[in-house]
# Entry
Amino acid sequence: MTDDVHLGRIELQLVKVLHTVISERSVSRAALKLQSTQPAVSAQLKRLRKLTGDPLLVRAGSAMEPTETALALLPVAAQMLQDAHRLFGGHSANRAFQPATTTQVFRIAASDFLDPIFLPELVARIRAAAPDSRVELQALSADYDYRRALAHGEVDLVIGNWLHPPQELHLGRLVNDEVVCLVATDHPAVRRPRQWTAERYLESDHLAPTAFHLGARGIIDDQLASRGLSRRIAVRTPHFGLAPRMVARSQLVLTTGRRYCERYVAQYPVRIVPCPVDFPPLVYYQLWHDLTHGSAAGRWLRETVRAVATGLTTI
# Structure
C-alpha cells in the first residue's frame, strides 16, 4: 500500500466501497447503499483485495465476516471519507442537508441515565423527519471507548453526563437535573424522613450504575470523594432501566436525576426523597468530534437531540 504505483490507482470511490462493504458485511447490501449494482461492487472488492493483499471479507456459515485487516482498515477509511467531506462537501450552499430524502446512518452512543423517554422520543423524531435514514444506538459501558469511536468516525454523537467532559471534543449542554434519591415505599427515608440525614445516607446500601470506563467511580462518588466521603455500594449494574424495579424490591438507595426517577413512581412502589447530601445538578451533554463538526447532517442531528432534550418536560 505504500507503493506509489498502487496509490495512483486508488480513487475516493474505492475507499467508499471499502468502508461500505466492510460495514455492511454484504456485497448486495453495500450495492444498495451505494446505489450501484452487485457485479460492480464485486469487481471493486476484487480490486481492493488485490491492492490490500487481503480477502477483506470471508464466508462464515451463511454470512460474511470481515478479516482482522478489514477491521483495522475500517476506521482509516472512515477518516479519509470524513476528511474528503470536510474538503469538498461541507461548505457548499447547494449541498444543504435534506432529512426527508437522506439515507444517512445516524450512529449515537448514549447512556439511559437522562430519562427513559428520551431515546424513544429521539428515534421517533428522527424517523418522522428522515424516514429513509437508519439509526444505530450504542450503549455507553465500561468496555466501550467512546472517545476512540468518535475520533475514528464509528459514532457521530455521544450523549451522557460527565463531571468533566473530555476537552478534545465539541460539547453541547442539554439539560440540568436535580439529584434525588429513589427508594422503596417502606424504606426508612420514607417512614422516618426527619432521620434521613447525610450520615444515614452514607451508611445505607446503594445501587449504582456501572461507570463509563474501567476504574471510574461515577459522578456521585467522585463528588463524595472530593469531600472526603464515601458510600456503601451494594449493587452495581449496567442495566440502568431495571434499577427502579431493583429498588422497589429491596432497601437499596438509587441516587440519580429527578427526571429519571419521576417516570417510575407510578409504575413501582417507589418514592422520591431529597438527597441529604447536597450535590450540584447533574449536567447532560452531547459530545462530538471535529470530524463531524462541519457536517450538515451532523448539525441537524445535534439540533434534533437538543430539541428533544429541551422538550422532555412536556412529553
The domain at 98-175+283-314 is CATH 3.40.190.10 (D-Maltodextrin-Binding Protein; domain 2). The first strand starts at residue 57 and ends at 60. DSSP finds 13 helices and twelve strands in the chain.
